[in-house]
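Loading example: each entry is read as four labelled lines plus one structure line.
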Amino acid sequence: MNVEEIIKTKKDIPLKSRTLIHLTLVQNKIIETMSAALKPYDVSIQQFNVLRILRGQQGKPANLSTLNERMVTKMSNTTRLVDKLLAKGFVKRNICKENRRKVEIYITPTGEDTLMQIDKTVSKVEEVITNNFNNEELKKLNHLLNKF
Amino acid sequence: MNVEEIIKTKKDIPLKSRTLIHLTLVQNKIIETMSAALKPYDVSIQQFNVLRILRGQQGKPANLSTLNERMVTKMSNTTRLVDKLLAKGFVKRNICKENRRKVEIYITPTGEDTLMQIDKTVSKVEEVITNNFNNEELKKLNHLLNKF
DNA sequence: TAGGTATATTTGTATATACAATTGTTGTAA
DNA sequence: TTACAACAATTGTATATACAAATATACCTA
């Protein structure tokens, strides 16, 4: 990936700006590739994230705040995101008995099955995207990203 | 930035997955910070990008396809994006005489003035975001990002 | 030069997201 | 116990984006 080539400029960009642009371009590529891979499952990246979080709960329910905490979206959208998953039968939702303000969200067996399928696809995509890296380089990259 | 802490997991994430999540988290932070900084100017990141591209044209008009080529958004949205800038008086738009299918877009003096103001703010933000990096590290990071 | 094809942009529409306001529930202090 | 603040989630609304179809102009060729 060559930044100057993609954004078609001949000037040299200051290093800090260039870095941020570079990150944006990489992220765009990742999102594009991932979305395309998830499309056959009719699941968005965010929906996939929610399913993963729910599976991580190992049977325990997660409430909306918890989901929200571990995601990027805003609370209001998490509600609607779960609505979508509910409509697909991937999650179950009920009001928490101890605290009726909260809702409890579980992944359903259907959700788990689908998630397992998606996992395979996503792994492949991750392989493809990081194809040019060896282990050492990935570690180095993660180390550098920590500085943000 | 600690990935595990942010997404609140205790399991260790495979390195490739972790890298992609890491990039997403970094990018979210960048977008959030940038958007907030641009807010007082009532300009979105994409609108800012268009203005920068137009300034780079140095008087020469850019048509929509050109803008689109150098951006991330889809064509259909570039039209509407320019609509917004037009409404703010930051750009001018007219039909190309040589090829009436094309439109020519220029930045206006008002647009240039505003852009100069924004530049200062954006530079500061870039400084803040990349604050923990030295020059060597930024180069290394750019080098690694090239592998995507 | 008429008809079809390619090009450049716009419009329509469904979905996604951000932000603010609202609803319903719980905790608490007078 | 009542009134009020805090909490958890939802709803409303404006804006953003993706994708497909439509419009308008230019090019080409039989």
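Chain B touches chain A through 44 residues (CB under 8 Å).
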